[in-house]
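Hi R.,

Here's the chain you asked about this morning:
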Amino acid sequence: MKLNKRFFIFILIISLISITTLGCISEEDPIAPPANEDHDASTSTIDIIVNSPKPSDVVDGSIDVIGEARVFENNVRIRLKDGNNETLVDTFTTAEGDAGELSPFSKNIEFDTPNTAEGVLEVFEDSANDTGEVNKVTIRVIFQNQ
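And the predicted structure, written out as C-alpha cells:
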C-alpha cells in the first residue's frame, strides 16, 4: 500500500513538472498576431499599418490614406488636424477583408488648406468597449502653400 502511494505522488510530481515545462517552452504568444517588422514604427501599430501618406509628405487639399488594418468590425477612423490641433476632417472607412485579418483600406479625404504649415493625420480604431481610441498611428504632414 505504501508503495502505491509513493508511486502516485511520483507520477503527480512528474506530471506537474511536465505541464510547467511545456508552458515555458514557447516564447511566442499563439494568440498575438505577428509583428509588422517590415514597417516603420512611426507609421504602424500591430493592428494598423499606414502606407500612405508617409511622415512629412506635402499635402494640398486632399490625401489618399492607404493601409492595412485588423480592427474592431473593420472600422478604421481617420482624422486630420492642423498645427493648432483643430480638426479639419474626421471620417472613417472600412477595411475590406475578414474580421480578425490584416485587411486593406483606403480613403481619399479632402480638406481646405489651413493657415498652419503642418498638421497630423491620425489613423486609429475606436475601442470595442468604449474606452477611447486605440492602435493610433499619428503621421506628421506638411500643408502646401504655407
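Confidence is low (pLDDT under 50) at residues 24-39.

Let me know if you need anything else.
M.
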